[in-house]
Amino acid sequence: MAGAVGLCLCCASSFAQTLTSPNGEFEMNFSLQDKGVPTYSLQYKGKDVIKTSRLGLELIPEAASREFWDFAPEGTIHPMADARTSLYDGFEVADVTTGTFDETWQPVWGETKDIRNHYNELALLLNQPATERQLLIRFRLFDDGLGFRYEFPQQENLVYFVLKEERTQFAMAGDHKAIWLPGDYDTQEYDYTTSRLSEIRGLMQTAITPNSSQTPFSQTGVQTALMMKSAEGIYINLHEAALINYSCMHLDLDDKNFIFESHLTPDAKGNKGYLQAPCVSPWRTIIVSDNACDILASNMTLNLNEPCKIEDTSWIKPVKYVGVWWEMITGKSSWAYTDDLPSVQLGVTDYTQVKPNGIHGATTAHVKEYIDFAAEHDMDAVLVEGWNIGWEDWFGKSKDYVFDFVTPYPDFNVAEIRDYAKSKGVKMMMHHETSSSVRNYERHMDKGYQFMVDNGYNSLKSGYVGDMIPRGEHHYGQWMNNHYLYAVQKAAEYKIMVNAHEAVRPTGICRTWPNLIGNESARGTEYQAFGGNNANHVTILPFTRLLGGPMDYTPGIFEMDIEKINPNNTSHVNSTLANQLALYVTMYSPLQMAADLIEHYRQFPDAFQFIKDVALDWDDSRYLEAEPGEYITVARKAKGSNNWFVGHVTGYDGHRSNIKFDFLDAGKTYIATIYADGKEAHYKTNPQAYTIRKVVVTNKSKLTQQSAPGGGYAISIIEADKTQTKGLKKL
Questions:
Q1: Which residues are catalytic?
Q2: With a threshold of 0.90, does the pTM exceed it?
Q3: Structural element, H or E, at residue 403
Q4: Percent share of the chain, pLDDT over 90
Q5: d(Cα 388, Cα 386) in Å, to the nearest integer?
């Protein structure tokens, strides 16, 4: 680690400074332009990535941000109140600090055992003489890109302030190919659209599809993480890191000049954030490479977050689970206990007096079947949804007291399930659907978490379906982002791991709070039963959503024809069976569900073996080949083992994969079990066609493997001796 150097430039009216990355491939230039406007630009290997772009924030006028004046002494409004809205011009550079940082740290769980955090830093303290305010802009330039944020020091003239908007720009160097989601304050559960930047406006209307809660805001607004590729083959990803006490950032595109500007999620009043100095914004991140694999391997988002704040992390462990879930998603079973109640009032409705509907999934007997299956196949846990009262009118009613998180339906015996699971060595995973009644959840959170502890649950799936209560708040606003973190921090007090669905997309906070072992926050497998996902969806998510943290994608579907499960649902899972196996490797997560019905796993026990074998935590990960929207191949080494697993997924065109096994230890021999698409496999017409073969491999082996459209392959690579490899072909 190198020391910092200070430079006083109090009298400077204009200023420019250059920062280079440790490997010298990136150059970032900061300058104060006319009228004291802070700007930056970024080059990679001599080519423009971000052209000169403005920086800063706009505030709500002081008088407008005051709620009442009953107790305010006369004259308390600053005489320049209406002129004090700009934190984007009128600046002078007061001080410059530079430095270098280099460390290696170990995550509690992750894609690699060790993560290097190496960057050069430039911090600029800006004075605004007209208002006597200060703003610090901190840049960190890594070997994989740039992170920067705004910092608001302790000062007399900027203490409590309200954001009207953040004015950060990202001026792109061309009409890039982009893989994007519509900008929305409440959901990321859209299919991705691939187009030129100039085509976003014309495609926006068809890109916005129905959701349980959605608020699009612009004909050219898109969400992060935004993945782009220039005509020169440079991959560019725009995102944010350490989203704490701040609103989620979207990007609004000036599609004539190809300039993105930050667009923060508002609250019920339209304000974008309430801040108190000293404080900081999230980091704005620009990950860049001419090799798509480098985007997938980037740890910048994690590195820009604070170190772990949980002292004892021994209780935080990866989880492989099954559950009573897919049968409800497909419509075979029901979350609700009865169809006789048009409405429910907790504490008033007597469920012993109503007729069961006969399709309730969360029954004691049925859950025991899943516990037995989990125990038989060494699964860690069983998730059960629909176990608690209130599901009859849970959605779309703007209902405050919707669940109490402790009271089961008459056919779900908590104590019996607890004792049975314990006797089988299986953990139960709790489900807390809030129906987005967040005030109600916070009122009941301690009681619900204690109920989990008392009954042996150490992991939790939470949900935020529907429009928010408090009404008018959004899923991605500052208020809700603070709630999501509060829930994780409170769970840590009870030694509970959290997997939040419908929450804001993650931004690396799992480094600081590793009990956040998963999120949904994107279009997951459930949509395969709601009409289907695009067949290339899983070749995009690792380039976008997963850059901020692991996803509970819930893979492992073996029966693609949903009509066979529920005759009234004609959806089709747009994936081959081999593709589903590969997702356990390509979609990194320490939380992995074998999501299908247990009868389908019994139908294909040879394929299910890979789900049983595949690891959840890794010492090393190597991205072997990748192209966003087309294919991804990754090899991962199991934690504390010499065993490796390889996953490959492909999109609509299929892919002929060519990989080397040079990641294996020299001089050692392994048995590779290859689960691949059958010769006639196709995600739509023949998804269950697969082959399994065993071969001997070393670090000199090579593999050529054809994958079907929407297909893939998965490989388990186990160290072996000569007696085990006898009779097997060498690759």
A1: 526
A2: yes
A3: none
A4: 95
A5: 6
